[in-house]
Amino acid sequence: MFTSLPPLNALRAFESAARLQSMTLASKELHVTHGAISKQIRVLEEFLGFALFVRLHKKVALTDEAKRYLPHVQAALQTLSSATADLRSQGSRPQTLAINVLPSLTINWLIPRMEQFKSRHPHLYVDLSIGDFAVDFSQGRYDIAIRSSTQLPRGVNYIKLMDEDLCLVCAPSLAPKLKSIEDINQVTLLKHTTRPELWEYWADKVGLVLTQAQTFGVEHFYMLSQAAASGMGAALIPRFFIEEQLANGSLVIPFQAPFTSPYAYYLLTPKSPSLPLKVQAFIDWMLELFAPYRQSSDNDKA
């Protein structure tokens, strides 16, 4: 692994000499001798197989290859320096991690699991808020956001957490009325008001013509699950939102009619070539938690 990495000391000598255009000034900056800088430059040139400098009177000039190489070396050294400083500071000072997450995902799923993250990273103070708006990271209010969308996010770094796999659920008292797909037209359809088209997408997928005109709308999946559990009608809800309710029997799946909606869940961070370690820690944890759902989704599609 990393077999193409040159020696770190050689990279530091090259970056300093290239930026200052002087091996003498580089030796002073790095507190080593002029000969040590020259030796490290030769080591790097031998490693790369081409010259990096043209030696001039009292200064040096970069070759074309070195000009292309320098910004990549500087970016890599900066990333390593920032990550090291961030890591060293974690043990000495608390840090705030500001996260903004979809309301239903926060209430039903994330909050019951947050103690696990806190126990792994006790130095982090988590500022968790809810929202479903377009996130403007330039305001500096959030480090991370989680959103669902039908299209890839733009202007941010993003990681796709999973597709949205929905299941049809209802209260146990309503289940006897739902013995087949056609019976859906005999009960009230509970709708997610910001996604009113989900029932039509589902009906098209299963080959059903919807004729039931009686509907009841709510704004979030959390509210939708409560309405369904109270016996108000049938609902299409992501399975991972309602694991506990399915386990305790307050919601049931009357018949199997799984459906992958056009939406997917994305973890968003500011547009940047590198991330603070506190942000990367949360990303790693989220990918760990979502792994079973991604695998389940992949198996369903296989």
From TrEMBL:
Organism superkingdom: Bacteria
Matching InterPro entries: LysR-type_TF_proteobact-type, LysR_HTH_N, LysR_subst-bd, WH-like_DNA-bd_sf, WH_DNA-bd_sf
Keywords tagged on the record: DNA-binding, Transcription, Transcription regulation
PROSITE patterns from the UniProt entry: HTH_LYSR (PS50931)
Domain HTH lysR-type: 6-63
Pfam families: HTH_1, LysR_substrate
PANTHER family cross-referenced by the UniProt entry: GLYCINE CLEAVAGE SYSTEM TRANSCRIPTIONAL ACTIVATOR (PTHR30537:SF26), HTH-TYPE TRANSCRIPTIONAL REGULATOR (PTHR30537)
Family recorded in the similarity comment: Belongs to the LysR transcriptional regulatory family.
Protein's name in the database: LysR family transcriptional regulator
Species of provenance: Shewanella mangrovisoli
